[in-house]
Please model this.
Amino acid sequence: MGESKNINKNNVNKIPDYEFLFQEDMECETDKKVSRIPKRLLKENIFKIFVSTVLYIVKASPIWAVPLVTAEIINIVTNPDEFTLHKMLLYGIILIILLIQNIPTHVLYSRFTDRMLRTIGAGLRNTLIKKLQHLSITYHKEIESGKIQSKFLRDIEAIEFLNTHFMKSVIPSLMNIVISIIIAASKSGIVTLFFVIVIPINVAVVYMFRNTMSKSNRRFRKETENISAKVSNMLDMIPVTKAHGLENEEIAALEENIRTLREKGLILDKVNAYFGSVSWVISQIMSAMCLFFTGYLALKGKIQVGDVVLYQNYFNSISGNIQALINIYPELTKGMESIRSVSEIVLSNDTEDNKNKIKLRYVHGSVEFNHVNYRYPDAKEDVIKDVSFCIEPGECVAFVGASGSGKSTIMNMIIGFLKPTSGELKIDGKSIDMLNLSDYRHFISVVPQNSILFTGTVRENITYGLSKVSEDKLNEVVELANINEFLDELPNGLDTMIGEGGGKLSGGQKQRISIARALIRDPKILILDEATSALDNISEYHVQKAISHLIKGRTTFIVAHRLSTIRDADRIVVMDNGRCVEMGTYDELMAMKGKFYELKTLNDINTKDD
Model:
C-alpha cells in the first residue's frame, strides 16, 4: 500500500519532457511548426483542461444567475400577484446558495488549474535544459550565452503567460459568451441574433491588427535577445574595460542598443494602444445599440421590462468577454513569438546522437588516428590534414606547435566534441562514431588552460557530478593535487565559498582544484590542454607537482606551451598547419634539429626574456 502511494506521488511530481511536441512534422515550414505546438500541448493536457473548465462553470454560475434573478424580480414587481413574496424569497435562497458554493469550488478550480500550469511551465524549462545539454559544443560556441538566457527566462515566462491567459482568460471568456448566448436564445431569438452579430465585428478588428502586432512583437523580441547577449559580453569584459579606461565607450555602445530597444518597444506599444482603443469604442457603440434595441422591443410589448436588464447584462457580458479576448490577443501574439524563439533551440539538429551506440563498461586507453581530416563547418580548408598515430594505454603523449596548428582540435576530437570529416578515430579499437559519447566521457578527465569553476565551495567544485565521495578519497586527491599548500589560508577549508568562477582564488589555486576534480574521477584518458601556460613560475611548480601524480597509469595527452615541461613524455607530436610533421621522444626530436628543435629554441629565448 505504501509503495503504491509512492508511485502515485512520483507520477504527480514528475516533470514532463515536451521535446516530442516540437519534433513532430519536421518537414513543415517553421511557421506551421510553431502554430501547431500550442495545439499539441492542449491535446496532451485535454482531460485536465476539461476538468478545469467544468470546475469553472460550477464556480462561476452566479455570473449568469444574477441577471436572471434580477430580471425575474423586476418582472414580478411590475406584475405582482399573491405569490410575489414567496417567489422573491425562493429566488433569494437560490442566489445565496450559488454564491456560497463559489468559495470551495473556486479554491478547487485554482488548485487544479495552477498545478497544471506550473507543471507545463516546468516541462518547458526541463525540455530546454535537456536540449541544451544534448546540443554539440560547436552549437554552444556559435550562439551567445545572453541569447540563451533570454530564451530561458523571458521566452519561457511569456509562454507560461500564454498558457495562463488561455486557461484563466480565454476559456472563461468563451464559456461566458456561449452560456450567455444560450440563455438569451431561450428567451428571444431576435435579440440573440443581435448578440451574434457582435462577434464577427470584433473578430474583424483582430484580423485587421494581427500582422502588424505579430511583426512588432518579433522585432522587439529579437532586439531584446541582442541586448541581453551584449550585456552578457559587457559583464565578461568589465576587467578589460576598466583596465583600459573604456567605460564611457562601453556605456555609449550599450546606450545605442538601449535606444533601439526603446524605439522598438514604443512601436509595439503604439500598435497595442490603437488596437485596444478601436476595439473598446466598437464595443461601447454596440452596447448602446443593444440598450436602445431592447428598450424598443419592451416599448412595443415584445419582451417584458425586466428582460431589458437581462439582455443588457448578458450583452455587456458577451461584449466584455469579447473585449477581454481582444485585449489578451497582444499577449497571445507575444507568447507565440516566444514559442518560435524557444523552437530555434529545441528544433536544432546539431546534437549528439547516442541512441543504439555502444556503452563502454571499461576503457583501456588506446587511441588511434587513421588518416584523419577535419574541417569546421563553412570553412574553406581542413584544419587537421591526414593525421595518423597510435597511442597505447598508459602512454603520455605531448602535442606541440604554433597557435592554430591543430593541437586543441585534436584534443576536441579525442573528447568527442568534434568528429573526423574523413578518416577514422578509434578508442580501444572501436570507431568513436560507434560509441555512446556520454558513457565514454565518464572515463575521461580534462584539465583546461582556463580553470572552469562555479559558485560554490572548494569541496563542491572538486566532487562536481559525483553523488558519493568518501572523506578519505577526497583528502587523498586534495593532497595529491597539492591543495593542502593553501587550504589553511581559506577561512572554512574545503567548505570555503570561492566566488563566481573561483574569483577569490589565484590562478594556480584554481588550476589545482581542476586537477583534483580530474584525479577524483580516476580517469583512463587524461587531457591537459595547456594546463600551466597561464601561470607564474611558482604556481606552475605547484601545479606540475600535482600533474605528476595525475598522469601515472593513465593515457595522457598534453598540449604544451612551455616545452621544458614535457621532457619526460613518452612521445612528442609536432603539429604544423594541421599536419603531424614530427614524432619522437624529447631527445630524439632535439637530435633531429627539425621543427621541434626550432620551437624549443624560440621557447627558450622567450623564457629567458621573461
